Amino acid sequence: MPSCRPSLLSRHSVCVILSRKGVTKSIGIFYFSSTGNSLYISEMIREKMGGKIIFIPTYTGDGSEFDKIIVVSPIYSSGLPVHVYDFLPRLDKERALFVALNYGGMVGGVDYFVYAYSRQIGLNVKGVFALKMPENYTLTFTVPRFYLKRVLNSVDKRIDRVITKISRGELVLPKKRRTKEKIYYKNKAKVYEFIS
Ligand SMILES: Cc1cc2nc3c(=O)[nH]c(=O)nc-3n(C[C@H](O)[C@H](O)[C@H](O)COP(=O)(O)O)c2cc1C
Fold it and tell me: Which atom of ligand 1 lies at the shortest distance from residue 32's CA?
C-alpha cells in the first residue's frame, strides 16, 4: 500500500510505494490542466500507485526528489501546452519518465513528437501514452452529448490500462509517425510573442 512521509530532501512531501522487491520508490506526478481532465488522471494514478501530485506551473525543481516521474498533460494544438514543453528540459535526466497525454479527438502524432522531443533533450523516457478524454476545445464546435457519454463511460478503464503499464515499468514507446510539429512550433512562437 502507498504511504506518505515528509521528504528529507525537499520541502515537498513525498509519497512512497514499496516495489515487489521491497525497495522504496517515490513517484512525482506532474500535471498541467485547464479543465481538470489531466488532474483527474493524476488523481487516479495517485490512488493506484501512490505519489505526489504537483501542478507544473508552480513547481521550480527538477524532479530529482523522486525515483519515477509521471507527466500528465493535455494535447494542445497538435503539441504540448507551453508550460509542459518548457518544463520537460528542466527534469533530471536520470529519472525514469512516463508521459500520459490526453486529448479530445485527434492525437495527430503528438505521442511520437513528445517521445522524440524527450529523447532529443536527453530524458530517460520509458513510456508515452495517449488517452482519449472529454473534448474541452469548445470554441468552434459543440461536442454531442451522446459522444461525451460514450467517452466518459470508458474513461476509467482506459486510464487503468495505462496505470498498469506504468506500474509494471513496461517500455511503451510510440512508433515513428507523421507529426504536425511545424504548425505547432509556428503557433507556439505566436504564444511566446504574445506573452513577452
Ligand atoms: C487550446 C486547446 C487546444 C486543443 N488541441 C487539441 C488537439 O490538437 N487535439 C485533440 O485531440 N484535442 C485537443 N484539445 C482537447 C484537449 O486535449 C482535451 O480535452 C484534454 O483532455 C483537456 O485536458 P485538461 O482538462 O486537463 O486541460 C485542445 C484543447 C484546448 C483547450
Answer: 26
